[in-house]
Write a structure and sequence with these properties.
By secondary structure, the protein is of the alpha/beta class. The protein contains 25 helices and 27 strands. Among the domains are: about 270 residues, no CATH class; about 100 residues, no CATH class. The chain is elongated and about 95 Å long. The chain is about 35% helix and about 20% strand. It starts with a strand and ends with a helix. The strands form 7 sheets. Strands 2-1-4-5-6-7 form a 6-stranded antiparallel β-sheet. It has a 6-stranded mixed β-sheet with strand order 8-11-12-3-13-14, sandwiched between helices. Strands 16-15-17-23-21-22 form a 6-stranded mixed β-sheet, with helices on both faces. InterPro entries: AAA_GajA/Old/RecF-like, Bact_Antivir_Def_Nuclease, P-loop_NTPase, TOPRIM_OLD.
Length: about 750
């Protein structure tokens, strides 16, 4: 028996959310404030009875609530059912023929069809129709009184905030699941509160908070306190009776010895008490006795220590780092919870035992995070011991911000939370396999690449897909240049400062010319994405043998092949990604003329194609026509071609010194020296110079090493404020297609 799905309505960020759970472990990923903690809290409030607060109401639900009370009409017309007004949680439970159904019974199972093995437990914190009328009447009465006293009226939401507990009611139901529609039927249910069904026997929920009570202060011993909790549970179990009796007998013997010592220690003060009349002849004399309590002894008088078995040196837990203490504390806490799930020796564990571990990575370094997630499945997989000998399974949810934990996790366990338009959407990554059904190799590659190499993509607000090493090395510098230029312009115009690119949560992913492999994933997670690629122009030529004769096909026609060429000489583009996103039949001439808006795309789910949309979240950027400082208009084929075209002066200055001596090998050893000389003396163009790049990563590093920084003194015309700005990478320019793309990405 397990929970297969959780549905939440109107709770905090979870306006209308559905989360699929795995049988053993579900790993919830997402950025800050995307609903992970909201899921934990609604489970705690409904399953453990924690109280609701007004802040638990979803913001748009509050607006709906306000509109209901500001309207003169009722929420429902005559003859129509009263609408649901409140917070709801639904747990979809799947069971099979091997499960013990004694806790479920015919009151919880709504359908006797043997093929229907789904139970829906519904929990609601809602406003009933009668209480809606009462709340409205009370609010109107309060308003009338205030109007008489101060000629002012109160806000309905403020009134609800102060008084909602008087009107909202909790209900617990078992709802019919319709196998034909695959949905729950809310109109057919059993009231579990009226039937006095104990939900705790069906689902037991416990959680470990991200704000764990770990500290390395000398005065605090959180691990020792946890060891006392483990003891308290062991004391109730018959299997531990022998060792517990030994412990208690040792305490009794120690009590006797301590009483003799106390008599000697406190003899003088007891005598003083007697002299001052603290005891009378009718009273027996006082004495100090030892009353060691086994529970308190462990909690207050034990210390968890750590150390090396070789050195023999042991240190108390407070000397340990917070990371290790957090890990040890979690293991202790898990052990305590497993014992609590087990219940007392006279009762069985619940049918479903659900554990939520919030952000296990707190205080821990990457290697420790990897070790944790590698071992957690085996620790939790042991399940909950039952007297019958067959353990009950434990279902676990782990929420995390850690890319290192993701890298060591099973791809199919991942649930991705993303906030869209003030609502949280949950997606199971295993659903991607269905989406990639026609390209299973692409799915296999994506799965390996994301978990092993770039799991940080799951936590990014924006993504840049690039061709290779050159762009990867130079992009941070280019982003810095744009940030500085924007800061300069904003200061001079006295405008609000925009959020710098380098301060935004942007992942840079190196994909070569295979960005199309990621297109389903880009659409799936909906993250704003900039694809920087090359136009890769080619010309079609006859294929010839060594003697220069044209090769023939089997049917006698002449063979042709595609050769890389200047864009001006090209017949088409060999970049598959461009054709994939923009249409396989698009011509090179059309590619060259597309505007930025015409390269901004969104996926049309009905047609399963990428369509132009100004509000799209994907932008394709490749080389376009651009003028350099010599006013030469040119369309480059590659990044290197484009860089050389607009930075000819930069290359020239590092080719010859003022005495016209060649210095190119000193500054740019990665470039072919002859081509460098010819380029500096205008004998070859940037296209040929691009073919003279030896090692591209080395060339990118040399650009950075030869960069200069300028200090700019500025004065704002409006405010007359002055300041000095350090302009890094000031002696070279960013190719237009990259600059445009980064500026688009920088915007919200």
């Amino acid at each position: 028996m397990r929970i297969s799905e959780i549905k939440v309505e109107n709770f905090r960020l979870l306006k209308n959310s559905s989360i699929q759970l795995e049988e053993d472990l579900s790993l919830i990923l997402g950025k800050n404030n995307c609903g992970k903690t909201s899921l934990l809290l609604i489970l705690d409030k409904f399953l453990n009875g924690s109280p609701f607060s007004f802040d638990d109401f979803n913001s748009s639900f509050r607006d709906e609530l306000k509109s209901y009370f500001e309207s003169d009409s009722y929420p429902n017309s005559i003859g129509e059912p009263f609408p649901f007004i409140g917070i709801s949680l639904k747990l979809f439970i799947k069971y099979d023929d091997n499960d013990d159904l004694s806790n479920i019974g015919d009151k919880v199972i709504m359908d006797l069809d043997p093929e229907n093995k789904v139970i829906v437990l519904g929990f609601e914190y809602k406003l009933l129709e009668s209480e809606f009328a009462n709340l409205k009447d009370d609010y109107n009465a309060m308003n009338s009184q205030r109007e008489l006293e101060s000629n002012q009226t109160g806000d309905i939401l403020s009134f609800i905030k102060q008084n909602f507990r008087n009107y909202f009611t909790t209900s617990k139901k078992s709802i019919l699941y319709d196998t034909e529609t695959g949905k729950e039927n809310d109109s057919v249910y059993t009231d579990l509160l009226k039937e006095k069904i104990n939900i705790g026997n069906i689902v037991n929920f416990k959680w470990i908070n991200a704000r764990r009570n770990v500290s390395n202060k000398d005065t605090e011993r959180s691990l020792s306190t946890q060891s006392a909790k483990i003891y308290k549970k062991m004391e109730d179990e018959d299997v531990n009776r022998t060792v517990i009796d030994k412990f208690k007998n040792a305490l009794t013997e120690t009590d006797k010895k301590l009483e003799d010592i106390y008599g000697e220690m406190f003899n003088e003060i007891i005598e003083d008490v007697r002299k001052f009349g603290g005891t009378t002849q009718d009273q027996s004399s006082i004495r100090i006795t030892s009353t060691l309590q086994h529970k308190e002894l462990l909690e207050d008088n034990t210390t968890v220590v750590y150390g090396s078995s070789n050195s023999g040196i042991e240190l108390p837990e407070s000397y340990n780092g917070l990371g290790y203490m957090n890990l040890i504390s979690m293991i202790f806490e898990i052990k305590i919870i497993l014992n609590e799930f087990q219940n007392s020796k006279d009762s069985y564990p619940a049918d479903i035992n659900l554990l939520f571990i919030e952000e296990p990575e707190v205080h821990t370094h990457p290697q420790m995070q990897k070790i944790f997630i590698k071992n957690i499945k085996s620790l939790l997989g042991e399940g909950i011991p039952v007297r019958s000998g067959q353990n009950r399974k434990l279902q676990t949810i782990i929420s995390t911000h850690s890319a290192h934990i993701v890298a060591e996790s099973d791809f199919e366990d991942i649930k991705y939370f993303r906030k869209e338009d003030n609502e949280v959407k949950s997606k199971s990554l295993k659903d991607l396999e269905k989406i990639y059904c026609e390209n299973k190799n692409n799915y296999k590659f994506l799965k390996q690449y994301l978990t092993l190499h770039r799991s940080d993509l799951f936590f990014a607000d924006k993504v840049i897909f690039i061709e290779g090493d050159t762009e990867r090395i130079l992009l941070p510098a280019m982003m810095k240049k744009i940030d500085i230029e924007d800061e300069l312009n904003e200061f001079l115009k006295d405008e609000n400062t925009s959020l710098p690119l380098l301060s935004q949560n942007i992942s840079i992913i190196e994909v070569g010319a295979y960005s199309h492999v990621f297109e389903e994933f880009i659409d799936f997670i909906g993250v704003k994405s900039l694809i920087i690629t090359d136009i890769d122009s080619f010309e079609t030529v006859f294929d010839k043998d060594k003697e220069g004769n044209k090769k023939l096909k089997s049917d006698g026609t002449e063979k042709t092949k595609e050769l890389a060429c200047r864009v001006s000489d090209g017949d088409g583009s060999s970049n598959y990604s461009l054709k994939y996103f923009l249409g396989k039949d698009i011509e090179l001439e059309s590619l060259a003329k597309l505007t930025l808006i015409e390269r901004t795309l969104i996926k049309n789910s009905d047609e399963n194609e990428w369509k132009v949309n100004e509000e799209g979240h994907v932008l394709l950027q490749y080389q376009s026509e651009e003028k350099n400082k010599e006013d030469q208009l040119y369309h480059a084929r590659s990044f290197e071609d484009s860089f050389f075209h607009i930075n000819k002066e930069f290359i020239k200055k590092h080719t010859f010194n003022e005495e016209e001596e060649f210095t190119g090998s000193l500054y740019f050893p990665s470039l072919t020296q002859k081509k460098m000389k010819d380029f500096a003396t205008d004998k070859i163009d940037s296209y040929e110079m691009a073919n003279g790049v030896g090692k591209k990563p080395a060339f990118a590093m040399e650009i950075l090493l030869n960069s200069k920084m300028n200090e700019i003194n500025m004065c704002c015309i409006k405010t007359r404020q002055e300041r000095t700005l350090r302009q890094e990478y000031s002696n070279w320019e960013i190719p237009k297609y990259i600059k445009e793309g980064l500026q688009w990405l920088k915007e919200d």
